[in-house]
Protein backbone atom coordinates (compact mmCIF):
# COMPACT_ATOMS: atom_id res chain seq x y z
CA UNK A 1 0.00 0.00 0.00
CA UNK A 2 1.50 3.29 -1.03
CA UNK A 3 1.78 6.11 1.44
CA UNK A 4 0.55 9.61 0.73
CA UNK A 5 2.78 12.66 0.62
CA UNK A 6 1.73 13.49 4.17
CA UNK A 7 2.69 10.09 5.57
CA UNK A 8 5.60 9.34 7.83
CA UNK A 9 8.00 8.06 5.06
CA UNK A 10 7.57 11.31 3.14
CA UNK A 11 8.21 13.40 6.25
CA UNK A 12 11.31 11.37 7.06
CA UNK A 13 12.61 11.80 3.51
CA UNK A 14 12.08 15.57 3.74
CA UNK A 15 13.94 15.75 7.04
CA UNK A 16 16.86 13.80 5.60
CA UNK A 17 17.05 16.21 2.69
CA UNK A 18 17.07 19.19 5.02
CA UNK A 19 19.81 17.64 7.13
CA UNK A 20 21.87 16.89 4.07
CA UNK A 21 21.57 20.44 2.73
CA UNK A 22 24.67 22.37 3.75
CA UNK A 23 23.76 25.48 5.74
CA UNK A 24 25.56 28.71 5.05
CA UNK A 25 27.53 29.81 8.09
CA UNK A 26 26.51 33.15 9.58
CA UNK A 27 28.91 35.94 8.91
CA UNK A 28 30.19 37.43 12.09
CA UNK A 29 31.40 40.98 11.95
CA UNK A 30 34.34 41.04 14.25
CA UNK A 31 36.56 44.05 14.66
CA UNK A 32 40.20 43.24 15.05
CA UNK A 33 42.12 44.26 18.14
CA UNK A 34 44.34 46.79 16.39
CA UNK A 35 41.30 48.55 14.89
CA UNK A 36 39.77 48.90 18.35
CA UNK A 37 43.04 50.27 19.72
CA UNK A 38 43.25 52.82 16.90
CA UNK A 39 39.68 53.97 17.54
CA UNK A 40 40.38 54.41 21.25
CA UNK A 41 43.56 56.35 20.56
CA UNK A 42 41.77 58.66 18.12
CA UNK A 43 38.89 59.26 20.53
CA UNK A 44 41.27 59.95 23.41
CA UNK A 45 43.25 62.39 21.26
CA UNK A 46 40.12 64.25 20.17
CA UNK A 47 38.83 64.36 23.75
CA UNK A 48 42.17 65.72 24.96
CA UNK A 49 42.11 68.47 22.34
CA UNK A 50 38.55 69.45 23.24
CA UNK A 51 39.07 69.39 27.01
CA UNK A 52 42.56 70.92 27.09
CA UNK A 53 41.34 74.56 27.40
CA UNK A 54 39.17 73.60 30.38
CA UNK A 55 41.99 71.65 32.02
CA UNK A 56 44.40 74.53 31.40
CA UNK A 57 41.91 76.95 32.94
CA UNK A 58 41.61 74.77 36.04
CA UNK A 59 45.37 74.50 36.63
CA UNK A 60 45.82 78.22 35.88
CA UNK A 61 43.68 79.03 38.90
CA UNK A 62 46.63 77.86 41.02
CA UNK A 63 49.17 80.08 39.25
CA UNK A 64 50.35 83.25 40.98
CA UNK A 65 49.76 86.46 39.10
CA UNK A 66 53.45 86.76 38.23
CA UNK A 67 53.42 83.55 36.15
CA UNK A 68 50.84 84.76 33.66
CA UNK A 69 52.70 85.73 30.51
CA UNK A 70 55.84 83.80 31.43
CA UNK A 71 54.51 80.30 32.13
CA UNK A 72 52.13 79.20 29.40
CA UNK A 73 52.38 75.53 30.31
CA UNK A 74 49.74 73.41 31.92
CA UNK A 75 51.15 73.12 35.44
CA UNK A 76 52.06 76.09 37.64
CA UNK A 77 55.64 76.48 38.86
CA UNK A 78 54.61 77.76 42.28
CA UNK A 79 51.07 76.55 43.03
CA UNK A 80 48.96 78.71 45.31
CA UNK A 81 45.34 78.99 46.44
CA UNK A 82 45.55 82.73 47.01
CA UNK A 83 43.47 83.35 43.89
CA UNK A 84 40.50 81.49 45.38
CA UNK A 85 40.77 83.42 48.64
CA UNK A 86 40.92 86.71 46.73
CA UNK A 87 37.91 85.84 44.59
CA UNK A 88 35.80 84.73 47.56
CA UNK A 89 36.43 88.07 49.25
CA UNK A 90 34.65 89.76 46.38
CA UNK A 91 35.39 93.05 44.67
CA UNK A 92 34.13 96.63 44.77
CA UNK A 93 32.75 95.94 48.24
CA UNK A 94 30.46 93.18 46.94
CA UNK A 95 31.05 89.53 47.97
CA UNK A 96 31.30 86.88 45.30
CA UNK A 97 28.15 85.09 46.50
CA UNK A 98 26.14 88.21 45.63
CA UNK A 99 27.33 88.06 42.00
CA UNK A 100 26.40 84.38 41.93
CA UNK A 101 22.97 85.15 43.35
CA UNK A 102 22.34 87.85 40.76
CA UNK A 103 23.34 85.55 37.91
CA UNK A 104 21.20 82.77 39.36
CA UNK A 105 18.14 85.02 39.59
CA UNK A 106 18.57 86.24 36.02
CA UNK A 107 19.23 82.75 34.60
CA UNK A 108 16.43 80.95 36.45
CA UNK A 109 13.98 83.78 35.79
CA UNK A 110 14.87 83.67 32.10
CA UNK A 111 14.27 79.90 31.98
CA UNK A 112 10.86 80.24 33.65
CA UNK A 113 9.83 83.11 31.39
CA UNK A 114 10.98 81.35 28.22
CA UNK A 115 9.20 78.10 29.06
CA UNK A 116 5.91 79.76 29.97
CA UNK A 117 5.64 82.28 27.16
CA UNK A 118 7.24 80.24 24.38
CA UNK A 119 5.17 77.12 25.07
CA UNK A 120 1.92 79.10 25.08
CA UNK A 121 2.82 80.96 21.89
CA UNK A 122 3.94 77.73 20.23
CA UNK A 123 0.66 76.00 21.11
CA UNK A 124 -1.30 78.89 19.61
CA UNK A 125 0.70 78.80 16.38
CA UNK A 126 0.61 75.00 16.08
CA UNK A 127 -2.92 74.10 17.23
CA UNK A 128 -5.22 77.13 16.95
CA UNK A 129 -6.47 78.40 13.61
CA UNK A 130 -7.07 82.16 13.53
CA UNK A 131 -6.94 84.97 11.02
CA UNK A 132 -3.48 86.25 10.27
CA UNK A 133 -1.78 83.11 11.56
CA UNK A 134 0.63 82.88 8.64
CA UNK A 135 1.48 86.59 8.73
CA UNK A 136 2.13 86.62 12.47
CA UNK A 137 4.23 83.47 12.30
CA UNK A 138 6.28 84.88 9.42
CA UNK A 139 6.76 88.15 11.33
CA UNK A 140 7.95 86.21 14.37
CA UNK A 141 10.45 84.26 12.26
CA UNK A 142 11.56 87.54 10.70
CA UNK A 143 12.67 88.81 14.11
CA UNK A 144 15.40 86.17 14.03
CA UNK A 145 17.00 88.19 11.22
CA UNK A 146 16.83 91.42 13.24
CA UNK A 147 20.12 92.15 15.05
CA UNK A 148 19.84 92.92 18.74
CA UNK A 149 21.81 96.11 18.27
CA UNK A 150 18.99 97.60 16.18
CA UNK A 151 16.53 97.54 19.09
CA UNK A 152 18.94 98.50 21.88
CA UNK A 153 18.09 102.21 21.91
CA UNK A 154 14.27 101.83 21.66
CA UNK A 155 14.24 99.19 24.38
CA UNK A 156 16.43 101.28 26.64
CA UNK A 157 14.15 104.31 26.21
CA UNK A 158 11.08 102.19 27.04
CA UNK A 159 12.58 100.73 30.21
CA UNK A 160 13.94 104.10 31.24
CA UNK A 161 10.49 105.68 31.00
CA UNK A 162 9.13 102.74 33.01
CA UNK A 163 11.77 103.48 35.67
CA UNK A 164 13.23 99.98 35.42
CA UNK A 165 16.89 100.88 34.88
CA UNK A 166 19.28 99.27 37.40
CA UNK A 167 16.79 96.47 38.05
CA UNK A 168 16.46 92.93 36.72
CA UNK A 169 13.17 93.67 34.96
CA UNK A 170 14.68 94.74 31.60
CA UNK A 171 16.49 91.39 31.51
CA UNK A 172 13.52 89.26 32.62
CA UNK A 173 10.36 90.94 31.36
CA UNK A 174 10.98 90.25 27.64
CA UNK A 175 11.40 86.55 28.44
CA UNK A 176 7.80 86.44 29.73
CA UNK A 177 6.48 88.08 26.54
CA UNK A 178 7.62 85.38 24.08
CA UNK A 179 10.21 87.61 22.45
CA UNK A 180 12.61 84.69 21.95
CA UNK A 181 11.56 83.59 18.46
CA UNK A 182 14.10 80.77 18.40
CA UNK A 183 12.43 78.93 21.27
CA UNK A 184 8.93 79.55 19.91
CA UNK A 185 9.91 78.16 16.52
CA UNK A 186 11.55 75.11 18.11
CA UNK A 187 8.43 74.29 20.14
CA UNK A 188 6.10 74.94 17.20
CA UNK A 189 7.94 72.41 15.06
CA UNK A 190 7.89 69.92 17.92
CA UNK A 191 4.14 70.30 18.55
CA UNK A 192 3.26 70.12 14.85
CA UNK A 193 4.76 66.63 14.65
CA UNK A 194 2.39 65.31 17.31
CA UNK A 195 -0.80 63.54 16.19
CA UNK A 196 -3.99 65.56 16.52
CA UNK A 197 -6.03 62.48 17.46
CA UNK A 198 -5.33 63.05 21.14
CA UNK A 199 -6.51 66.66 20.90
CA UNK A 200 -9.71 65.63 19.15
CA UNK A 201 -10.41 62.87 21.68
CA UNK A 202 -9.91 65.30 24.55
CA UNK A 203 -12.12 67.88 22.85
CA UNK A 204 -14.90 65.28 22.49
CA UNK A 205 -14.66 64.68 26.25
CA UNK A 206 -15.22 68.40 26.82
CA UNK A 207 -11.63 69.59 27.30
CA UNK A 208 -10.76 73.09 26.17
CA UNK A 209 -7.49 74.55 24.97
CA UNK A 210 -6.20 75.10 28.51
CA UNK A 211 -6.82 71.49 29.54
CA UNK A 212 -5.40 70.11 26.29
CA UNK A 213 -2.31 72.28 26.61
CA UNK A 214 -1.71 71.44 30.27
CA UNK A 215 -2.61 67.74 30.32
CA UNK A 216 -1.61 66.56 26.83
CA UNK A 217 0.82 68.88 25.08
CA UNK A 218 3.11 69.85 27.96
CA UNK A 219 3.93 66.27 29.05
CA UNK A 220 4.71 65.28 25.46
CA UNK A 221 7.02 68.23 24.72
CA UNK A 222 9.11 67.70 27.84
CA UNK A 223 12.32 66.95 25.86
CA UNK A 224 11.88 70.15 23.85
CA UNK A 225 11.24 72.14 27.01
CA UNK A 226 14.42 70.78 28.58
CA UNK A 227 16.34 71.74 25.45
CA UNK A 228 14.96 75.27 25.65
CA UNK A 229 15.86 75.39 29.35
CA UNK A 230 19.47 74.46 28.66
CA UNK A 231 19.95 77.11 26.00
CA UNK A 232 18.03 79.78 27.93
CA UNK A 233 20.05 79.15 31.09
CA UNK A 234 23.41 79.21 29.33
CA UNK A 235 22.59 82.33 27.30
CA UNK A 236 21.28 84.23 30.33
CA UNK A 237 24.16 83.13 32.55
CA UNK A 238 26.76 84.27 30.00
CA UNK A 239 24.96 87.45 28.91
CA UNK A 240 27.24 90.47 29.13
CA UNK A 241 25.71 93.19 26.96
CA UNK A 242 22.27 93.22 28.57
CA UNK A 243 23.45 93.64 32.18
CA UNK A 244 26.06 96.14 31.00
CA UNK A 245 23.30 98.35 29.54
CA UNK A 246 20.67 98.17 32.27
CA UNK A 247 22.58 97.58 35.52
CA UNK A 248 24.62 100.37 37.07
CA UNK A 249 25.05 99.36 40.73
CA UNK A 250 27.83 96.87 41.58
CA UNK A 251 25.55 95.00 43.98
CA UNK A 252 23.28 94.17 41.02
CA UNK A 253 26.05 92.94 38.72
CA UNK A 254 25.99 89.33 37.54
CA UNK A 255 29.15 87.30 37.13
CA UNK A 256 30.05 88.39 33.55
CA UNK A 257 30.14 92.04 34.65
CA UNK A 258 31.96 91.16 37.87
CA UNK A 259 34.73 89.49 35.86
CA UNK A 260 35.39 92.78 34.10
CA UNK A 261 36.03 94.51 37.42
CA UNK A 262 39.18 92.49 38.00
CA UNK A 263 40.68 94.11 34.90
CA UNK A 264 39.30 97.63 35.37
CA UNK A 265 39.95 98.29 39.03
CA UNK A 266 43.63 99.24 38.57
CA UNK A 267 46.04 99.85 35.73
CA UNK A 268 47.43 96.32 36.25
CA UNK A 269 45.05 93.46 35.50
CA UNK A 270 44.68 90.73 38.09
CA UNK A 271 44.90 87.73 35.78
CA UNK A 272 44.96 85.17 38.57
CA UNK A 273 41.69 86.38 40.06
CA UNK A 274 40.15 86.76 36.60
CA UNK A 275 40.97 83.18 35.61
CA UNK A 276 39.77 81.81 38.95
CA UNK A 277 36.52 83.74 38.82
CA UNK A 278 36.01 82.58 35.23
CA UNK A 279 36.46 78.95 36.23
CA UNK A 280 34.04 79.29 39.16
CA UNK A 281 31.49 80.97 36.89
CA UNK A 282 31.82 78.13 34.40
CA UNK A 283 31.00 75.36 36.89
CA UNK A 284 27.21 75.97 37.14
CA UNK A 285 26.89 75.92 33.35
CA UNK A 286 28.77 72.62 33.12
CA UNK A 287 26.73 71.05 35.90
CA UNK A 288 23.46 72.26 34.40
CA UNK A 289 24.37 70.82 31.03
CA UNK A 290 25.59 67.49 32.42
CA UNK A 291 22.41 67.01 34.43
CA UNK A 292 20.03 67.72 31.56
CA UNK A 293 22.03 66.72 28.47
CA UNK A 294 20.36 63.30 28.26
CA UNK A 295 17.09 65.06 27.48
CA UNK A 296 18.72 66.43 24.32
CA UNK A 297 19.04 62.87 23.05
CA UNK A 298 15.41 62.17 23.99
CA UNK A 299 14.37 65.27 22.07
CA UNK A 300 16.14 64.09 18.95
CA UNK A 301 14.64 60.61 19.27
CA UNK A 302 11.13 62.00 19.68
CA UNK A 303 11.42 63.86 16.38
CA UNK A 304 10.33 60.64 14.67
CA UNK A 305 6.82 60.87 16.14
CA UNK A 306 4.30 61.37 13.37
CA UNK A 307 0.53 61.78 13.33
Number of strands: 0
User: Using only CA atoms, what is the Rg?
Assistant: 30 Å
The helix/strand class is mainly alpha
Number of helix segments?
15
What is the average of the pLDDT values? 82
- Shape call: flat
Low-confidence stretches: 1-7
Determine the fraction of residues in helical runs and give it as a percent range: 55-70%
What is the H/E string? Answer: HHHHHHHHHHHHHHH
Residue fraction in strands = under 5%
Distance between the termini: 63 Å
Largest sheet features: none
Written account of the structure:
It is a single chain. With 307 residues, the protein is mainly α. It contains 15 helices and no strands. It has helices spanning 8-20, 33-60, 82-89, 96-127, 133-142, 152-161, 169-172, 181-192, 197-204, 209-220, 222-237, 241-246, 255-264, 271-292, 294-302. Helix 2 packs across helix 14, helix 4 runs antiparallel to helix 11 and helix 11 (222-237) packs across helix 15. The longest helix is centred in the middle third of the chain and has 32 residues, at 96-127. The chain is flat, with a radius of gyration of 30 Å. Mean pLDDT is 82; it is low at 1-7.
Amino acid sequence: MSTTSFGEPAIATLENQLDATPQQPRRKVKRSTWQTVIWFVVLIAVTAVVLYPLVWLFFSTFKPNSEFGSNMGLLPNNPTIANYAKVMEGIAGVPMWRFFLNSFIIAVGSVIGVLLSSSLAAYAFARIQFKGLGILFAAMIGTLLLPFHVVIIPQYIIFQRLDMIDTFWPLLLPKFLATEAFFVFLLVQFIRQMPRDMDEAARIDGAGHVRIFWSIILPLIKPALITCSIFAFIWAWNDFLGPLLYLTSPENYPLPIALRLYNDQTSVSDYGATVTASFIALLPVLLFFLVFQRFLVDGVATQGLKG
